[in-house]
Design a protein that fits this description.
Number of domains: 2
CATH architecture of the largest domain: 3-Layer(aba) Sandwich
Largest sheet: 5 strands, parallel
Shape: elongated
Order of helices and strands: EHEHEHEHEHEEEEHHHEE
Number of helices: 8
CATH class of the largest domain: Alpha Beta
Protein name: Transcriptional regulatory protein PhoP
Keywords: DNA-binding, Phosphoprotein
Helix content: 40-55%
InterPro entries: CheY-like_superfamily, OmpR/PhoB-type_DNA-bd, Sig_transdc_resp-reg_receiver, WalR-like, WH-like_DNA-bd_sf
Pfam family, one: Response_reg
Structural class: alpha/beta
Strand order of the largest sheet: 2-1-3-4-5
CATH superfamily of the largest domain: Response regulator
Length: 221
């Protein structure tokens, strides 16, 4: 899963990026509103963390522009001002959730995970597909109760497929959602990750749809 962080405080932005990467996300960071708006407009993020007090373009304006452009990306707003008026304005502008600074990183991560689950129609905190279970909070994967060790990129591929079961997902889409913007992307490595997942999970639930991509089947044929 890929997250956009729009935050102008360098130290907080660094902390957010580090915590989210450690939690298994690909992360892009923008330090002002204009850059944040552009990145959110041009890239398919699974969620965004948006500060309200930004230079160049304030957070509410960024959010309104995204929503006017019909973006359905889940957005969590951050504000240093403990004002119920701003919270209401943020929600009315299209935010899905909010946190007031200071906050605990664990709470922010939990809220982001919940927003992503809701956006993909998954309400349970642990994702399941037959015997396969993926826990986004702990970053663990198991098959029939046995823990399976995955690399960070293998985990991100499986995480995305688990959130989009029974959907055909192209290699391009997977590439866009498992790598940050500045990463040297290679869509051909997706085939490698898929092959490793099939072997490690000992499953044929990951179906190759010729010429279109991959599909994680929620039920065996």
């Amino acid at each position: 899963m890929r997250i956009l962080v729009v935050e102008d405080e360098p130290e907080l932005a660094r902390q957010l990026e580090q915590a989210l990467v450690a939690a298994g996300f690909a992360v892009d960071v923008a330090a002002d509103g204009l850059d944040g708006w552009h990145l959110g407009q041009e890239n398919p993020y699974d969620a965004a963390i948006l500060d309200l007090g930004l230079p160049s373009l304030d957070g509410l304006s960024v959010l309104r522009r995204w929503r006017e452009a019909a973006s359905e990306m889940p957005v969590l707003i951050l504000t240093a001002r403990d004002s119920w008026v701003e919270k209401v304005e943020g929600i009315d502008a299209g935010a899905d959730d909010y946190l007031t600074k200071p906050f605990r990183m664990e709470e922010l991560q939990a809220r982001i995970r919940a927003l992503i689950r809701r956006a993909s129609g998954k309400l349970a905190p642990v994702l399941a597909c037959g015997p396969i279970e993926l826990n986004p909070r702990t970053g663990t994967v198991s098959v029939a109760g046995a823990v399976v060790t995955l690399t960070s990129h293998e985990f991100r591929v499986l995480d995305y497929l688990m959130h989009h079961q029974d959907e055909i997902v192209s290699k391009t889409t997977l590439t866009e959602h498992i790598y940050a913007q500045d990463f040297d992307r290679d869509s051909n490595t997706i085939e490698v990750f898929i092959g490793r997942l099939r072997k490690k999970l000992d499953t044929d639930r990951i179906e190759t749809v010729r010429g279109r991509g991959y599909r994680l089947k929620s039920a065996q044929a």
